[in-house]
Amino acid sequence: MTQRYALYYAPRPEDGLAATASQWLGRNPETGQTRAPRPVPGLAPERLAEILAGPRLYGFHGTLKAPIALADEVTERDFVDAVGRFAARERAFAVPSLELAELSDFLALVPATRCPDLQDLADRCVLEFDEFRRPADEAELARRRAPGLTPRQDALLLRWGYPYVLDEWRFHLTLTGRIACATERETVAVALRQRFAGVIESPLQVNDLCIFRQPAPDRPFTVLARFRLGGGRRVRTETWPGP
After folding, report:
1. What is the pLDDT of residues 174-192, one digit of tens each?
2. Dist. CA 98–CA 199, nearest whole Å
3. How far is CA 177 from CA 38, 62, 73, 174, 182, in A?
4. Out of 1, 129, 144, 204, which residue is the most buried by the measure of CB atoms under 10 Å away?
5. Helix 16-25 to helix 182-196 angle, to the nearest 10 degrees?
6. Hey, is 131 helix, strand or coil?
7. In this predicted model, which residue has the larger pLDDT, 113 or 234?
8. Using an 8 Å Cβ cutoff, are 85 and 150 in contact?
9. Helices in the chain by DSSP H: which ranges?
10. Domains, the chain, ranges and CATH?
């Protein structure tokens, strides 16, 4: 029953992107509230539920450091405090715009152009917090390798516990699981373009660094803490009040 923690970008609840994404996935990772997703024309509700199951579990986010179990000598408080100190040294920035993309048969929002600030933040999250990570055991390594990895990705997995970091990392806000059928994938893409029209053309404001927590395997991730980049104070935390 090991808890896992991840460092994610997630829009603030009052942001239009957050509201649209929570409605699409049928779950708000900030509050934990759930609802039935709105129907997609041409897609059975049961099939839509299958397509949304993965991203619904994780909550709408962009990965900066993938989920980890904490090392034995590290407490949750240690990790939260360290992330708060790190965030206070950072600065907010904006991604000019997003676009809908297909990535290995799933659909996600990605930056329309490369954003060096975003890459730099993700790289430093991976490096800075590696000391808090419990090393991957053989079962986790096997699970990560199951889809097939390149030699470079396997080397990153062994060193950092995750294969898609540093030069293999690509920021994305996941909206679906894998959809093997191209026709079905286009049906969902049409719905997504309609739902997210008007919110992805605006700059993506990266103001916060969030800790998401998963209390146990197959349990949903929720926001544990949200820190303002460069602000030096906690925007939101589930466990402890802010200064």
Report:
1. 999 999 999 999 999 999 9
2. 9
3. 17, 15, 35, 8, 13
4. 204
5. 140
6. helix
7. 113
8. no
9. 16-25, 45-58, 76-89, 116-128, 138-145, 151-160, 182-196
10. 4-113+171-237 (3.90.1140.10)
- The whole-angstrom separation of Cα 144 and Cα 138 is 10
Q: What is the DSSP letter of 130?
A: G
| Closest to 7 in 3D by CA, of 56, 71, 53, 58 | 58
Can you give the pTM of this predicted structure? 0.93
Q: What is the pLDDT of residue 27?
A: 96
If you search the block for the tokens 């349990």, which residue do you land on?
Answer: 219
pLDDT in tens, 146-180: 889 999 999 999 999 999 999 999 999 999 999 99
Torsional class of 198: left (φ above 0), alpha (ψ -120 to 50), beta (otherwise): left
Residue 162 makes CB contacts below 8 A (sequence gap 6+) with 66, 126, 144, 156
pLDDT score, position 241: 38
